[in-house]
UniProtKB/TrEMBL annotation:
Taxonomic lineage from the root: Bacteria, Bacillati, Actinomycetota, Actinomycetes, Streptosporangiales
InterPro entries in the cross-refs: HATPase_C_sf (IPR036890), HATPase_dom (IPR003594), Put_sensor_dom (IPR025828), Sensor_HK_TwoCompSys (IPR050482), Sig_transdc_His_kin_sub3_dim/P (IPR011712)
Pfam families: HATPase_c, HisKA_3, Sensor
The protein's Enzyme Commission number: 2.7.13.3
Gene3D superfamilies, A to Z: 1.20.5.1930, Histidine kinase-like ATPase, C-terminal domain
Organism: Microbispora cellulosiformans
Protein name, per record: histidine kinase
Segments passing through the bilayer: 41-67, 115-140, 170-194
PANTHER family to which the protein is assigned, alphabetical: NITRATE/NITRITE SENSOR PROTEIN NARX-RELATED, NITRATE_NITRITE SENSOR PROTEIN NARQ
Catalytic activity: ATP + protein L-histidine = ADP + protein N-phospho-L-histidine
Coiled coil feature spans: 261-288
Length: 424
């Protein structure tokens, strides 16, 4: 019986380093989410105070003037939270201006849900944000405390959240151990705290069923228009490629063949050279026609499937790229072509702009959804608003009613996630 293949020690160490790096990124993102949530929680608390002031001053008449501003204040704060949550996960659609008038606002389900969110986020979200920020800052302070505690005033050298007097190095080391404990607590609890802080917003700020349906109809209309625009752009590209390339070369072949025929009739010695040039031009026209055909639907998809086609793209990438495909069965040809072109454009961007050392393409199929993830360890900062080719990728994905999520903070890493419906 053959022994199961054991990973090499170098592979094990590399996997361990990747796991530690992924865990470190998760903890850093959790801290970043908590701090971002703290900012919107402070705004939510201010909105709660404004609501209380408007309600209490109604007894003297001033509140009647303030009440119409409450829905606008609440909607403004809620929209900021929608934007924040959309940057860190599935998009939450903005709802636009709040209803005018107190009665219209009170009868609007979205406003009532936003009021509930204001109450939850202005209290629980604020607490979680403060707790996370305090935990991290005190962990950093206490871990480094033995390095600088002697520079503190002799009468008050004890740091915050320490319940004993620090008079010697042993006491300072005890503070450092407390800091390590705080850091360990945040490593364990930080991600859960960030999720709990975001949960009311995910639950209450998402569009209601009727609003979601109307937004879905508008989204499908926009998707259909984008599909038609993408189709027209593709036809223009093909027409331009044929007109500027193969057609011109075929015209040149015709001219050269006519000249060669006349040269042969006159028994001129340069007739053979003309025929050779005509043959070379015809071969170039044939090569350009093949390029145009590959741009319509790459033959490699039919020959080798999506996994083989993506492996070919990775082999030609300017950055070392690993492909991991686990997608049982074939998807519709248009979906596989979209995944192929998205990967090709993304790897081209990585080669040109990312300054990355490694890239990874991961493909998974779960039910009727094909998930594609392309990530690199480059400098980040990718923005589809700055003409980086990402706009074309999004248009191609949305033409198939897919979803694209880009995460590319300055300094990296960059991750492009695409979901496409491929049928069951």
């Amino acid at each position: 019986m053959m022994a199961a293949h054991q990973p090499e020690p170098a592979d094990t160490r590399r996997n361990d380093r990747r796991g530690v790096a992924a865990r470190a990124r998760d903890v850093f993102h959790a801290f970043e989410h908590l701090v971002g949530g703290l900012s919107t929680a402070l705004l939510a608390l201010a909105a709660l105070v404004w609501l209380a002031v408007a309600g209490l001053t109604c007894v003297i008449g001033v509140g009647l003037l303030l009440l119409p501003t409450v829905p606008r204040v609440v909607r403004s704060v809620a929209e900021r939270e929608r934007d924040r949550l959309s940057r860190w996960g599935p998009e939450i659609v903005r709802l636009g201006p709040a209803p005018t008038g107190v009665r219209a606002a009170l009868t609007d389900p979205a406003v009532r849900r936003e009021l509930c969110w204001i109450l939850a986020h202005g209290t629980l979200g604020l607490f979680l944000g403060v707790a996370g920020l305090t935990m991290v800052l005190n962990a950093v302070q206490n871990i480094t405390y033995p390095l600088w505690w002697r520079a503190l005033p002799a009468e008050d050298p004890t740091p915050t959240l320490v319940f004993w007097d620090v008079r010697d190095d042993a006491g300072a080391m005890a503070v450092a151990i407390l800091g390590v404990g705080m850091a360990a607590c945040f490593l364990v609890l930080g991600t859960g705290m960030a999720r709990l802080q975001a949960w009311p917003g995910r639950r209450l700020l998402a569009p209601t069923a009727d609003v979601d349906l109307s937004l879905r109809i508008a989204e499908l209309s926009a998707t259909r228009a984008a599909a038609l625009d993408a189709h027209a752009a593709e036809l223009r590209r093909i027409e331009r490629s044929l007109h500027d390339g193969a057609q011109n070369r075929l015209v040149a072949v015709t001219v050269m063949l006519g000249a060669a025929r006349r040269a042969l009739a006159r028994d001129r010695p340069d007739a053979e050279d003309m025929l050779e040039r005509a043959q070379e031009t015809a071969e170039q026209a044939l090569a350009e026609l093949r390029t145009v055909v590959r741009g319509i639907l790459p033959p490699v998809l039919a020959d080798r499937g999506l996994a083989g086609a993506l492996a070919g793209l990775a082999a030609n990438c300017g950055v070392p790229c690993r492909v991991d495909v686990d997608a049982l069965g074939r998807c519709p040809a248009s979906i596989e072509a979209t995944a192929y072109f998205v990967t090709a454009e993304a790897l081209t961007n990585i080669s040109k702009h990312s300054r990355a050392r490694h890239a990874t393409v991961t493909v998974r199929r779960e039910g009727d959804r094909l998930s594609l993830r392309i990530e690199d360890d480059g400098v980040g900062g990718a923005d589809e608003r700055h003409g980086s080719g990402l706009t074309g990728i999004r248009s191609r994905v949305e033409a198939h009613d897919g979803r694209l999520t880009l995460t590319s903070p300055p300094g990296g890493p960059t991750a492009l996630e695409v979901e496409l419906s491929c049928g069951s």
